[in-house]
Amino acid sequence: MQSHKETLLLTPENMGQVDRAAAASGLSSYGLMERAGQAVAACALRRFPGALRFVILCGPGNNGGDGYVVARALRAAGTEIAVHALGEPAALRGDAATAFAQFTGSVAPLADYHPRSGDVVVDALFGAGLGRNLAADVIATIEAINESAVPVLAVDLPSGIDGRTGAVRGAAFQAAATVTFMCRKPGHLLLPGRMMTGDLEIFDIGIPERILLAQGGKIGVNAPAAWRHVLPVKTGAGHKYVRGHLAVFSGPATATGAGRLSAMAGLRAGAGLVTLLSPTAALSANAAHLTAVMLKVVNGDGDLSALLEDVRLKTFVLGPGFGDGERARRYADLIASGERRLVLDADGITAFRDDPQMLFDLFAEGEPRLVLTPHDGEFARLFPDLAEDSTLSKIERGQKAAARSNGVVILKGADTVIAAPDGRALVNENAPPWLATAGSGDVLAGLVGAHLAQGMPAFEAAASAVWRHGEAGRTAGEGLTAETLIDALGGVDHIM
């Protein structure tokens, strides 16, 4: 059984609350620091058996305290060590002061360290709690170490990475590996922090899971544990209408491919029926490429209104290759009536750039029925103020956008965030870099539509689609195309 700690994300603020709650429960806070430092020392010895010297860089807070425990443990193991401190160690307080007192070795200033061949640096300067820009002298040290290619083992998070946002605060270590404690923090998953963390190890230092869960729950790592409980149950009594009917709008005759990719992905992802809604001028182009996907003429509002009389048709994908902004707005208005669900992607998002509130008003009432799938540029068209606010993490941008739109927001990228209006958010980590290819987003839109058509709630439909999209990308392998990505979707069904 997978532990909640594997998918839990805690901000530095939340982790501080966990530490205080653990101490209040009777756990020794210094005992936790001791276990953390010993774990880092064990990792250092295991990962770098050929090190000629371990250089421990200790900061002015509890991360530095961890570093002094590491130094003591490595010295006891018989390795050569050197300790360099930022600030005056005598000024340490609390558990960090205790750790320094237990070390008893010599400590040199941080500025005195000059990398040499055979060194391994243990970075215990700041950890995940950093929320300010680094001083120039610290930046100089970090840059010198990065340029030297001396391997770095980071304690909690590479120093210079903001644990809440993943942003670089002036400079940051490029770690070969990082040891963190109990669970991951947003900075481990959000870019560029993810790229600086290296191999990540999560070590349980003994805080009860109930204390972690009491401070978490709203944000996490996207994994089947978050949505498996609402996956459609497949039985022998099922038929195509039970599995839902998905409709995807085609673009004009010169841009039909994107809509077809979404439609084919929706069918492959389990929708019982999929219909491509095509203007007359694009019928021949679409008909030449479709078999199992049905084709229906929709030339304007009248055709769509007639189609909407079929109460079984409740889920739509609008935007891939669509092109016509004015028509997209009218279609969204028609779809919004009733209990219909809409995946708005690409050109569908751009259609509302001049009046985003018009879109939000259409879906303002009730449970979320709108799923938005923007990349950063499209996000800025609907939420310019959030996009420009550098104080927000990607998670926070997604949460605020979801609350404003009463929709589920899939803020795409290598660190895709899925956010719901109620504040829930998941960060995806399984997508390979080769998913960044033409048509990949169209496939994702169709996936989301298929999951909605099968009756999944909007947040879980979006999150499961993003995860399935990433797993299919891994299965298809480097060099995939949108077509081979669709073919790979079935290969991941058994692990959902």
UniProtKB/TrEMBL annotation:
EC number, UniProt record: 4.2.1.136, 5.1.99.6
UniProt keyword terms in alphabetical order: ATP-binding, Isomerase, Lyase, Metal-binding, Multifunctional enzyme, NAD, NADP, Nucleotide-binding, Potassium
InterPro entries in UniProt: Carbohydrate_kinase_pred_CS, CARKD, Nnr, Ribokinase-like, YjeF_N_dom, YjeF_N_dom_sf
Binding locations of (6S)-NADPHX: 62-66, 127-133, 156, 258, 321, 375, 442
Chain sites annotated for binding K(+): N63, D123, S159
Record PROSITE patterns: YJEF_C_2, YJEF_C_3, YJEF_N
Co-factor requirement: K(+); Mg(2+)
Residues in YjeF C-terminal domain copies: 223-496
Binding site for AMP: K412, G413, A414, D415, T416, G441
Cofactor binding notes: Binds 1 potassium ion per subunit.
Keyword Lyase: yes
Function: Catalyzes the epimerization of the S- and R-forms of NAD(P)HX, a damaged form of NAD(P)H that is a result of enzymatic or heat-dependent hydration. This is a prerequisite for the S-specific NAD(P)H-hydrate dehydratase to allow the repair of both epimers of NAD(P)HX.
Designated name of the protein: Bifunctional NAD(P)H-hydrate repair enzyme
Species annotation: Shinella sedimenti
